[in-house]
User: What shape does this take?
Amino acid sequence: MKKMLFVALCLMLLPLQANAQARFGFGLRVGASGYTDDVFGEGVKTHVGFIGSGNLLLLVNEWFLVGLAAEGDLHQLKLEATNDDLARLSSVSLIPFVELRGPSHTYLFLGVGCNLNYSRADSALDALGYGTAVKLEMNDTIAFKGGAGWDLFVNDHLAVNIEVGWKYNKGGAYLLMPADGGTTKIKLKNGFDASVVTGLCGLRYYF
Assistant: This one.
């Protein structure tokens, strides 16, 4: 996965040789994200979460942009039956991407990278009989993200950015349970599906 990111970053720099007028930029955005599935299956309730995103940008010309996104989203899971907190899930995604830009600075984008997934189990695991010492572990996964957006330029350098997208994040999950002075790792049958729909708004600056 690290090799894939390195190759993608190298490819992002190639347009510099072909276009001396390319413009660097950066972006900072915040917004909301919502899971598109039940994450761990039926019986688990999810809420709209927070997402923040930072971007490094290379505007090759008016029709093409390449960049690197680092974004993190945070969600709370609850048990449907009791409304008890089940776990807090967070993902940090590193995604090289390309934008195909059209009229009025609208664009379509697509990126491939990695999701680094983290979790913290809450009191509901104790209520289910697992005990408070149980931990929830989620695999890191490949990230695919696509969507559409719009740069609304305030002047030659600063733009208000609005973007909607979908990000794939699906993999294996495990319960880590203390046993005989050690830890027993139990694989969850269906793993997890933390794919999200995202909505972001913020600023981009082009030098």
The mean pLDDT is 85. DSSP finds three helices and 14 strands in the chain. Residues 2-13 form the longest helix (12 residues). The helical segments are 2-13, 15-18, 124-127.
